[in-house]
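As a warm-up, study this chain.
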Amino acid sequence: MLAASALLAGALGGCGVTAQSGVSLADDEEVPFGLLDPTETSSPVQGTGAAVAVFLVREDGHLVGVARLAPTGALSSRLKVLAEGPTPAEASGGLRSAVPGPDVVASVELVGGVATVDLSREFAELTGADQLLAIAQMVFTLTDRNDVERVGFTLDGEPVQVPRGDGSLTSEPVSRGAYAPLVA
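Now compare it with the structure written out below.
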């Protein structure tokens, strides 16, 4: 047991983790994206599964992250939970989803930091602001995972142009920065 403790201490020391004698608080500006932002709902996430953040749309058209439990932390689970939309309490608080349902996404895979979402024909029926918001919701929900930097979109396996926050179209993978104006 002593050898295991020494090995663990040596490994942590090699990773830059240092021992401290008490609790230290981070300054607000050091807290990662959005964690200190007020949320529309304050009910705790209950049940079992992986805690994930999904992004819904406020009445003013801005995105806001809410906590959910997904069966797994897999990308497909995140999108499935996103497609379920707001809870009744969130909906009564003015949140909605532009993602019309679970049939919008045919598949999702991750290669080299880029998640590729294969959209179904149902997605093509979305127009204007709802298409932009749905894409932004998926990008923010997927890139909330540390290993996802950008999101690309295909339709039946072929690259498809999607709107960015500035109104332009791209068939290249996009990051959160492309939708920064949509975040509260």
